[in-house]
Amino acid sequence: MSLLKYFVCALFALVELVFSQSVVSTKGYDKELFTVNLIETKKYTVEGHTCTVDMIYLEGSCAGEQFNGELIFKDSSNVVKYFNDGRIESTARYFINGTDINNNVARLHVEDIFVGFDDNEHPITRPNLIADIEELAWIQTADVIGIMEETKEGKLVRYMWNENNKKSYPVAKYPDETKNYSKKILTIDVMIPGLGFDGIRGPEASVGKLGFTCGANTPEFQGEGVDYFVDTRYDYTGQPQIISARYIIEGKDDEGNPMKIYVENNGVDDFGDNLNVRTEPFIITDNPKWAWIETAPLHGTHSDVALQIFFWTVEGADQNQPEEPESSEDMDEPQNIDSQNEPEEIEDSEESEQ
């Protein structure tokens, strides 16, 4: 590809990414709560057939009027999905240990979800916040947005508050159970505790962090987790426990071909006791033979005894293989801005203590 054509394609890709997302008004969000400086330490990428996924590990600090502190877990991460149709989804999860405006010791959990861009093309997020002290309980229903800026080491997020509004807690989404999920397609072996178990129990909401790593050892796929991961569990009053685990496994398929999968296993646990877990997994892979899994109906169950996760689909789903895009003599393979082909250490940052 010529240099001129490369820059033209990159420009069109950037324009498509910006304008395919919603424009978010920042009017009324005029009180800054705190600013989080996120340092990106590592990045793993899975280039799928409908989507490319970046899993970015985070460290950092927080400073501001309402809260000051440090990110405390090295398995904190942000997952960014670049879909082929131009959509972007991004969710960061991390814990901060620090003090509030009155110097009360506290911890804060942030689940930061990308929702679009403002008029100045800054990425805008809407965080779900959980605190472990009564003095910060108000922040859990405060109407807050994050305004994001790029830095040399990662991202700077200013959390702005609209004092005139409140928001509701997230609502649990039950996985689809209307189909006959009779075909088992993957078994994941879970190894705990990873980088440990922890959590925050607030007045009206709680969050648990279950550290783990994982692998697969089946005839269809053998591989190991590329790092340590987190199963995050949210408890909101009057709702089932909301669960979400994210991980990447790298290995080989049954023909010896390289294969990576990104799994986002979202679902519910009715009573939070791990006895009735149902999930609706989202799976992306770089293996052409498994491309069908990205659009197939999927269902997840688990075994407490063997610490295994089972993924199921309907009969015939693996026959719906998507067509490969036509090749072009003049164009290289599509490239996603800011995505990398291999795991890497981000420059100018300390090594993660794994």
Describe the structure.
The chain is mostly beta strands and 354 residues long. It has one helix and 20 strands. Strands 1, 2, 3, 4, 5, 6, 7, 8, 9 and 20 form a ten-stranded antiparallel beta sheet that branches. Strands 10, 11, 12, 13, 14, 15, 16, 17, 18 and 19 form a ten-stranded antiparallel beta sheet that branches. A hairpin with a 3-residue loop joins strand 11 (197-201) and strand 12 (205-217). The longest helix is centred in the first third of the chain and has 17 residues, at 3-19. The chain starts with a helix and ends in a 9-residue tail after the last strand. Mean pLDDT is 88; it is low at 1-19 and 326-354.
Key attributes of the depicted protein:
single chain, 354 residues, mainly beta, Porin, 2 domains, ten-stranded antiparallel β-sheet, 1 helix, 20 strands, 5% helix, globular, disordered N terminus, disordered C terminus
Record the SSE blueprint.
Elements: H1 3-19, E1 31-47, E2 51-63, E3 67-71, E4 77-83, E5 88-100, E6 105-117, E7 123-131, E8 142-150, E9 154-166, E10 183-191, E11 197-201, E12 205-217, E13 221-225, E14 229-236, E15 241-253, E16 258-269, E17 277-285, E18 298-303, E19 308-313, E20 344-345
Antiparallel strand pairs: 1-2, 1-9, 1-20, 2-3, 2-4, 3-5, 4-5, 5-6, 6-7, 7-8, 8-9, 10-12, 10-19, 11-12, 12-13, 12-14, 13-15, 14-15, 15-16, 16-17, 18-19
Signal peptide: 1-20
Keywords: Signal
Biased composition (Acidic residues): 321-354
